[in-house]
Amino acid sequence: WQVLETGQARVVRDLTPQALADMASEPGQAELLAVLRPSAFVTVPLVAPGRTLGTLSICIAESGRQVADDEVQLARELAGRAAVALDHARLLARLRRDLDDASSAVPTTP
C-alpha cells in the first residue's frame, strides 16, 4: 500500500525470512512467499495522467541476486508504459460505450 499512497518505488534488496513473514497480509500469502522464497523485489506505481492505477511488482527468486539500480529504472519505465496502455484501453472502452449510446439515440428511418 505504501507505493500506492506515496507514488514512490519501493525496493527491497535483501529479503529476510522474517521480512517475508511480515509482508503477508492475507491468508495463504505467508505460505506462498515461503515457497517462492524471493530474495529481493521492486514495486513501482502504475501512473497514468492524473492518477495512480495500481502497482507493478517484480521479485527476484532462486538466484539470490539483488536488484540493480538500472533494473529499478527499467521497472519504472515498464510501469509507465503499462499505465499508459491501461489508460488508453479505459478511454477506448468509454469511447465505444459513448458511440453505442449515441447511435442508439439516433432514430432510424424505415
Describe the structure.
With 110 residues, the protein is α+β, with helices and mostly antiparallel strands. Helices cover 52% and strands 23% of the residues. It has a 3-stranded antiparallel beta sheet. A hairpin with a 2-residue loop joins strand 2 and strand 3 (51-61). Helix 2 (17-23) runs antiparallel to helix 3. The longest helix has 37 residues, at 69-105. It is elongated. The relative contact order is 0.14.
In short:
This protein has helices spanning 2-6, 17-23, 29-36, 69-105; strands spanning 10-12, 38-48, 51-61. The chain has 110 residues and is α+β, with helices and mostly antiparallel strands.
Distance between the termini: 57 Å
Strand coverage percent: 15-25%
Q: Count all strands and give the number.
A: 3
- Work out the helix count: 4
Query: For the report, how would you describe the main beta sheet?
Result: 3 strands, antiparallel
> What's the average pLDDT?
87
Overall, the morphology is elongated
Order of helices and strands: HEHHEEH
Compute the gyration radius: what is it?
20 Å
Low-confidence stretches: none
- Placed side by side, the strands forming the largest sheet appear as 1-2-3
